[in-house]
């Protein structure tokens, strides 16, 4: 009986042959992918040929054209040279059209194109599929469901709650200014707006501003803003699995956990309160419900309650949008007034004429401060809280000048660039509240601090009330001066922030 044994040399030869085949197959697939990318890029260049582009690298796009954190400066340089729009190449075949002409933006907002999945999906682990990320019929249903939460009968009593939160912040700031050093105001304003949204929309009792645990939520939201912004621009972080393995991915996961723990606790406390004797019937008898109560009382078509996943997504979305965007707005408004003392004093005199005798601010006062409102709007023009929004064209579009874009194009409605476009706003860097005088005329889509169209910010009236209350009470208490040694550097993350904070000198008024 003989035994056949495979010799080592024949075994190695077989392995070597398999490796050669694998290498050849891998090289073929690589060349095939390169050819596909080349053809895809050629197709994009043909589709966008009507729109001149700043010089770009075929692989690295425009990333080499501007230094880190200099995107706004680079963009504005080309806004002045290229009318209406231009392609911004991120890398390879990744391109998005930046639009900053009001006619172009009006056409896009008048359609029902979905949010651009390539960028907005990075927000999903944080805020879930809530109103910001939903599309189609589901978005419409949620929008209709939540609109009653912003009825003016609901908003009226919020003025007093907002004023109380602002006073707590001002008291804290008054304790700090004894050191005669500038104060970084964004962190204080952010705690105040979180306190406000917790009281107004989520029926929270007590003061968030005096709770140290709230600081971790504020920090997590700030981290997520930066992490999402950086991920969108990093070619190696587009894949979810790869991103989770990176330090940034693990950091984002931890920040999401902190944010979710906060919102889960909010929902848990409200449910527990509604289980108390008599509380449920008391809430049901209300003509209008608060934001969270609407979610908790909503029934789906089959009669069941809103799924926990949908409930938390809407709470996460509004918790973020309701405090972070308003914190950005208020901080930049105060900075703009600090830089423009004459306008600041004129606002103060207007407010003193209404509240100078110590009267509490009320709903009726909000329409009696026209100059302050003009200054608020001009600051929102210079520093829009959401610097851009994205859409993915569901069908081709042709603009009024005859240029067109094909289906599938990612368009960015660059609100910051629109607000600083010299063809739309003469001398755009000058703070000029008269632009918003009642007699002034402007394009319907030249000023979009809360976006526009059917998907405009659902909470824009809530936000404007809070801005007026915060600005009015702050100017009654303090004179604002900028810190010339630390000029804020705007950074267009999900929300407009400052790279180096917003530092102001505060002088207590007698």
TrEMBL record:
Gene3D superfamilies: Cytochrome P450
Membrane-spanning residues: 12-32
Species of provenance: Galeopterus variegatus (Malayan flying lemur)
Protein family (similarity comment): Belongs to the cytochrome P450 family.
Pfam family, one: p450
Full protein name: Cytochrome P450 4A11
Cellular localization per UniProt: Endoplasmic reticulum membrane
InterPro entries: Cyt_P450, Cyt_P450_CS, Cyt_P450_E_grp-I, Cyt_P450_sf, Cytochrome_P450_Monoox
Keywords for the protein's UniProt record, in alphabetical order: Endoplasmic reticulum, Heme, Iron, Membrane, Metal-binding, Monooxygenase, Oxidoreductase, Transmembrane, Transmembrane helix
Primary site of residence: endoplasmic reticulum
